[in-house]
Design goal:
RNA-binding; Ribosomal Protein S5, domain 2; 4 helices; globular; 5 strands; five-stranded mixed β-sheet
Length: about 120
RNA sequence: UGAGUGAACUAGAUGAUCGCGAAGGAGAAAUCCUUUGAGGAAAGUCCGAGCUCCUUAGGGCAGAAUGCUGGGUAACGCCCAGUGGAGGUAACUCUAAGGCUAGUGCCACAGAAACAAACCGCCUUUGUCGAUUGCUCUGCAAUCACAGAGGUAAGGCUGAAAAGGUGAGGUAAGAGCUCACCAGCGAUUAGGUGACUAAUCGGCUAGGUAAACCCCAUUCGGAGCAAGGUCAAAUAGGGAAGAAGAGGUAGCCCGCUUCGUUAUACUUCCGGGUUGACCGCUUGAGACUUUAGGUAACUAAAGUCCUAGAUAGAUGAUCAUCCACGACAGAACUCGGCUUACCGGUUCACUCAGGAA
RNA sequence: CGGGGCGUGGCUCAGUUUGGUAGAGCAUCGCGUUCGGGACGCGGAGGUCGCACGUUCAAAUCGUGUCGCCCCGA
């Protein structure tokens, strides 16, 4: 799983991709031909100050790290944080992200190791 | 014991698992091991510098900033020590604090008047086919009214503020006109490097506002690490038209001008290209300890140490234990300051009040 | 990193240059008009002038600091 870095890729996903809305996050998805999926994070200024933004970004990164094995390849994904994501706990955030990803058709649910891990944590 | 003032320090701790950045090492590679990894404000970007570039940055105008004195510093609008002023019982705190005696402006409403004299008054004097009264009655005197000349600034209900204040003397009426005390100004002497302070003497007066224009003194070239440089890739070193011919035109990084310097241009239109990597990037006016100088800020010497360097931007998740239950908050070229935000905790020095000995 | 602007009743803005009275439109409330409503007419209420400190006799206005928002350039 690679990171989405260039502004050109971001604008491509935003203009041609399909957004799905969750409670704490907005996930935009664009199907690509590549063999790996790429993910980018967008945390706007409205979320809070630098400390709050950094914290949300780190939590999102940790969540995607945990779900990396289950993501189906060939997609460009942008996870945007909503304003409420600062007050959410890590578990609620993880649940919300997984739900939206599953709705978008990205999560292959046959491999459920990481889900078990998160359930153990819960 | 209570209330308070000033200064300094600290910013949850320990362990386990899975992950992240950097450096070093091992390995053919995947990868593994070790070390290390945000702050007192990293913030706001309000000042000052280093560093880099702009064909040196020279003068003048304009503009901006600073503004008690002495010192510190690479520099500062910062710091230290003091002076004056304000506040507090005190410890102590605050202070844009040069010049309205260079000039100009403003001072609403009210008030006679807002700084320059006039007005109402008060007093003296002259005059009147003037009025009243008295007398020794063609006249004279007193008072009043009006007009002219002169003196005066005490009084004039206002206002934030009215040509020093209070008291006494003095005068036709008055006035620092004179005297005493207070306040202010100037000079001399003494002390201090100086701001200034104290004493004596003098003449008697200067409204307030420069965070109003302004004057005086000092300082200021510009742009900023997206500075700037190296490498690689791609594309291009162009075409057409116009105009000027030489002390012209344009450029030289806020404005104007002069000097200097560079190019032979230039202008318009058409066409083409541009978001990779690396360096800059962390050893520095660096930190700590000791000694010496200095009231202090700070400086000097010796010794020891190396302490983030990312580039979609590195510190997160989970569990356990303890307590005060964890505030404000995330480096982005680097330093010195200022300002602002902040749950609390610790230490030292000092002040006041009460009590006990 | 650099530069510029804004903050005034519930909303949109004047007033700041040159300091002394905070004003307009819409909205709101009451009355009138109408069979009723709208429109219209009359009258009223509503503002710590973002915040703090200072200069001044006096501050929305002047100065400093600070908070928030918006825009532009590299």
């Amino acid at each position: 799983m690679e990171r989405l870095k260039r502004p050109r890729d971001f604008s491509a996903v935003y203009t041609r991709g399909k957004p799905n809305f969750g409670k704490f996050v907005v996930v935009s998805v664009l199907p690509m031909d590549g063999k790996v999926s790429r993910v980018g994070f967008a945390v706007g200024k409205k979320v809070g100050n630098a400390v709050a933004r950094n914290k949300v970004k780190r939590r999102l990164r940790a969540i995607m790290q945990g779900q990396a094995g289950r993501i189906s390849p060939g997609f460009d994904v942008i996870i945007g944080a909503k304003q409420k994501s600062v007050t959410a706990s890590f578990r609620d955030l993880e649940e919300d992200v997984c739900r939206v990803l599953k709705y978008s058709g990205l999560l292959t649910s046959n491999r459920s190791e990481s889900t078990r891990v998160s359930e153990e944590h819960a």
